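hiii so my PI (J.) wants the whole complex modelled not just the main chain, which honestly fair. so below is everything: two entries, each one labled with what it is. i double checked the lines twice but i was tired so who knows lol
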Amino acid sequence: QVTLRESGPALVKPTQTLTLTCTFSGFSLTTNGMCVSWIRQPPGKALEWLARIDWDDDKYYTTSLKTRLTISKDTSKNQVVLTMTNMDPVDTATYYCALNEYSGSYYTHFDYWGQGTLVTVSS
Amino acid sequence: QSVLTQPPSVSGAPGQRVTISCTGSSSNIGARYDVHWYQQLPGTAPKLLIYANNNRPSGVPARFSGSKSGTSASLAITGLQAEDEADYYCQSYDSSLSGVFGTGTKVTVL
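here's the output for the full assembly
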């Protein structure tokens, strides 16, 4: 059974660095083709894809936030970590991690999601 | 920011058919990347509804269907039910292999 769970601070101050952890079970990021993405959703707004880390440690970032994001994995702990620097109130959102796969020629859908964690940026 | 454009809202009476469009470009949907659809009920995480353009995961009712043509895709709900009232998002990839989501559509059952 695949599960993902996000954890991190509920409140951060402007200019601080946010660190979020996705702890998962039911699969391994050492398995060929497995990938974990971070996706966020500001209150009342649309989903926004942020970053992905693949089984082979390839990393991808959304262009608009690339300079602020770092994604990494700890396969021994079954965790994926996202850091976002220089937080701003506009970064207030629910942050999700989600599992997808690389089929060998294309990336697939997000079939498992965490429940999300709300991060508020305020002084 | 969303790269795929959806109508903000659609509505229909119970039993009716509604469709949601998802318009992309030659760098995402038009580049032959598959389109996936998610349903999000209030206060919950998105749930996969349609994958690879027109495939339903196990447990998703047959009244949900998807299609793709050129730089656009569509989600149809045939026989609208009260429990279908939710937000719907399309998703694909772009040429940089980054994920892209739609702007989201709120479905209201009248």
